[in-house]
Amino acid sequence: MTAFARRARATAARMHPELSLVSFTLLAHLEFQGGCRATDLAAHYTLDKSTISRQVGALERAGLVERRLDPADHRVHVLHLTERGIEVLAQVGDARRVAFRERLAEWSGPDLERFAEYLLRYNAAASGADAGVE
To answer: Is the pTM value of this prediction over 0.85?
Structure first.
């Protein structure tokens, strides 16, 4: 698992020089959610608010994320991807898919099916374990 994590961080750095694995993860979450508050990111990833603040600040400075007033509550800012953020996230996503296809090109259909089943099982177990962490 440690080797997998190291490889994921190194791959993220090669995919786009501005995006760390954490940055990519945050951008992907913002895209999936259609925007959210920084406190929501901190809660979702069980990270300290100051950690999220530093990460979001870097993404804002890179022009990938912007803050907008919540139309329902003008006291709250919601984070959204900028057009550039959407483009960069799409580029990285495309590059990741190409890399996965290359790595798995020689795997048989049954091997891919088992791998997918194991990943689903692992993620389900991780989600259950993460639910108890607060």
So the answer is: no
